[in-house]
Amino acid sequence: MNVSEQFLLFRAKAEELRNTRLIRESFNPGITIKWNRMQGLRFKSREPNEENLRSFLLTFRQFILDDEPVFLYRIYNLCQKHLTSDKLKNYLSKSREIWKQSLKSADVTLIYNRRELTPEYITDLWINGFYFHSDMNKLRILNQLFPHERILVKNQFLNFLLYATRQVLYVDNIIKVALKEGYFIKIQS
């Protein structure tokens, strides 16, 4: 696959992601934690429809798997190499930094057994241990969590999906502008 084809495939997959029911319905994950003297601590999670989430993840995971042609880091690199607009390159650099940061930390830092659970690690647990693969070690980690811990970890995963999707769609918009305005170096097939 040449570079032009990769950009077109990225645009098509970004559009597919944009049109998933999960994104169209604007899912907004969240947690409510309440304390009451009589009932103690209670956790309530706001999560998307499970079928919509699974459908979304079929496309989304292509942007985070390094052997995929639309892997976001690969696209960042191709854009930096082939873009002629310094302004668009600057936007991509900022997006890449946001992406890197979203993999490392989220709004809330989760520590479990003295280990920080980064969004990247948690996403790997859910995608490879629960949703798409049967990695028993990863599934075991998820299954060993107490219910309130699992709610917190799942919420971290869902929030990462939102942050990551924003960057995918942002990069898609940059590529769209670059293609329309002719800001890519003539790419040889």
Can you put this structure into words, describing what you see?
With 189 residues, the protein is mainly α. The chain has one domain (3-181). It has 8 helices and 4 strands. It has a two-stranded antiparallel ribbon with strand order 1-2. A hairpin with a 3-residue loop joins strand 1 and strand 2. Helix 1 (3-18) crosses helix 8 (147-181) and helix 4 (72-82) runs antiparallel to helix 5.
Q: Structural class of the secondary structure composition?
A: mainly alpha
Helical stretch tally:
8
**Which oligomeric state applies?**
single chain
Number of strands: 4
Provide the β-strand percentage band: 5-15%
- How many structurally independent domains? 1
Range of helix content:
55-70%
Could you describe the largest sheet, including whether it forms a barrel? 2 strands, antiparallel
Distance from first to last alpha carbon = 9 Å
Task: Report the principal-axis shape.
Answer: elongated
Radius of gyration: 19 Å
Give the low-confidence spans: none
The strand line-up of the biggest sheet is: 1-2
Mean model confidence by pLDDT: 91
Order of helices and strands: HHEEHHHEEHHH
Key terms:
65% helix, 11% strand, two-stranded antiparallel ribbon, mainly alpha, 8 helices, 189 residues
Task: Spell out the blueprint of helices and strands.
Elements: H1 3-18, H2 21-24, E1 30-36, E2 40-46, H3 50-64, H4 72-82, H5 86-104, E3 110-112, E4 115-117, H6 119-131, H7 136-144, H8 147-181
Antiparallel strand pairs: 1-2, 3-4
Helix pairs in contact: 1-3, 1-8, 4-5, 5-8, 6-7, 6-8
